[in-house]
């Protein structure tokens, strides 16, 4: 039976009745879904297990799954915090929301890390100033974290837990062990992973269909663990993502626009309807499987325009790609300052 696979911490796994009747359940191919959706009398007839024992197992399992669902969906006070920039809050539908994954993607030097550092300050602000008066965790995967810059934005690191992640194995350990312990022992409402894709791209081989399936499974497991942390602990997870080249057009050909690769990737990347030469064929990494786990996706762009005295000035743009809190995508120009990101 697949109970341990789906609910490894369930008390049913350790009950005397389950240990005794587990071979019979497995013999008759009774799954966890069968236990939750089939009448106990029918299960008893199929397996030969006394109905009262089946009823006890089912009641315990239903109680646990119902409690878990209520924990994940129960409103718990304030459900978001301000970014500290009013125009950003307007574009994002109020700010950074808890209990979900928010992704910030863009090319190098567009301000992704700067924005994440600014958010660590924003979440620590008093509640009457739009913050949550809480701590944050900053996980850096692309080298040593620029703590000097983080101190410059925050003033100090008293409420920021910094972790330098050196490889994929350590990243998995952080997500599975360190992060849950930090959240349990501290008032943490924001976790930043900068970036989520670095070690996955470096260490996971993608040669051959077998490796492709293995990598996809590893990504799915990581997504589930991250979503569990967000929902159960009611925190905001903000991740940055790298860019990759657009796949070849010949991969999928169809006459139906809404299921075409160009349409779906364009919509998920924020350049749908924009000429391909403008976006240079760059899209967020990790594919559609990862995109389906992201609730809010933000794109940061950088361009150059002629400024005063013939100098080229940098123009930075925040674009909301998709979000359930803002039906219409919005754009905000911003600049980098010593205090973090500021809207123009």
Shape: elongated
The total number of structural domains is 2
Q: Strand-residue fraction?
A: 15-25%
Nearest-angstrom radius of gyration? 24 Å
Strand order of the largest sheet: 5-4-6-7-3-10-11-12-13
- CATH architectural grouping of the largest domain: 3-Layer(aba) Sandwich
SSE order, as H and E?
Answer: HHHHHEHEEHEHEHEHHEEHHEHEEEE
What is the average of the pLDDT values? 80
Domain RecA family profile: 77-243
Subcellular location: Nucleus
Keywords: ATP-binding, DNA damage, DNA repair, Nucleotide-binding, Nucleus
Main location: nucleus
Report a brief summary of the structure.
The chain has 344 residues and is of the alpha/beta class. The chain has helices spanning 3-6, 16-27, 32-37, 40-47, 51-73, 86-92, 112-123, 147-154, 168-185, 198-203, 209-233, 261-269, 276-279, 287-291; strands at 80-81, 96-97, 100-106, 135-140, 160-164, 188-194, 236-241, 243-245, 282-284, 296-306, 312-322, 331-337, 340-343.
Structural notes for this entry:
- By secondary structure, this protein is α/β, with parallel strands linked by helices.
- The protein has two domains: 2-73; 80-246 and 281-294, P-loop containing nucleotide triphosphate hydrolases (Rossmann fold).
- It is 43% helix and 22% strand.
- The chain has helices spanning 3-6, 16-27, 32-37, 40-47, 51-73, 86-92, 112-123, 147-154, 168-185, 198-203, 209-233, 261-269, 276-279, 287-291; strands spanning 80-81, 96-97, 100-106, 135-140, 160-164, 188-194, 236-241, 243-245, 282-284, 296-306, 312-322, 331-337, 340-343.
- A nine-stranded mixed β-sheet has the order 5-4-6-7-3-10-11-12-13, with helices on both faces. A two-stranded antiparallel ribbon has the order 1-2. The chain has a two-stranded antiparallel sheet with strand order 8-9.
- β11 (312-322) and β12 (331-337) form a beta hairpin.
- The model is unreliable at 69-76 and 273-279 (pLDDT under 50).
- This is DNA repair protein rhp57.
């Amino acid at each position: 039976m697949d109970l341990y696979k789906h609910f490894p911490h369930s008390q049913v796994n350790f009950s005397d009745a389950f240990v005794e009747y587990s071979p019979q359940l497995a013999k008759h191919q009774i799954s966890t879904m069968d236990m939750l959706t089939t009448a106990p009398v029918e299960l008893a007839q199929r397996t030969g297990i006394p109905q009262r024992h089946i009823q006890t197992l089912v009641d315990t399992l239903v109680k646990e799954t119902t409690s878990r669902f209520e924990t994940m969906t129960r409103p718990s006070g304030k459900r978001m915090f301000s970014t500290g920039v009013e125009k950003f809050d307007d574009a994002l539908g109020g700010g950074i929301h808890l209990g979900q994954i928010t992704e910030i993607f863009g090319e190098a030097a567009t301000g992704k890390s700067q924005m994440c550092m600014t958010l660590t300050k924003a979440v620590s602000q008093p509640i009457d100033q739009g913050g949550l008066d809480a701590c944050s965790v900053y996980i850096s995967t692309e080298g040593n974290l620029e703590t000097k810059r983080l101190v410059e934005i925050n003033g100090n690191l008293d409420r920021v837990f910094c972790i330098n992640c050196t490889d994929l194995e350590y990243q998995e350990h952080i997500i599975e062990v360190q992060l849950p312990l930090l959240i349990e022992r501290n008032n943490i409402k924001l976790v930043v992973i900068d970036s989520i894709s670095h070690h996955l791209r470096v260490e996971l081989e993608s040669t051959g269909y077998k490796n492709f399936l293995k990598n996809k499974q590893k990504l799915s497991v990581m997504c589930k663990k991250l979503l569990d942390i967000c929902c159960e602990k009611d925190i905001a997870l903000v991740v940055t993502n790298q860019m990759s080249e657009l796949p070849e057009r010949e991969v999928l050909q169809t006459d139906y626009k809404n299921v075409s690769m160009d349409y779906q990737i364009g919509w998920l990347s924020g350049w749908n309807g924009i000429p391909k030469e403008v976006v240079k064929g760059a899209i967020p990494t990790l594919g559609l499987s990862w995109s389906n786990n992201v609730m809010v996706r933000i794109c940061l762009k950088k361009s150059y325009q002629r400024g005063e005295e013939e100098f080229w000035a940098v123009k930075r743009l925040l674009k909301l790609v998709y979000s359930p809190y803002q039906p219409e995508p919005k754009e905000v120009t911003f600049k980098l300052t010593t205090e973090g990101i500021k809207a123009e």
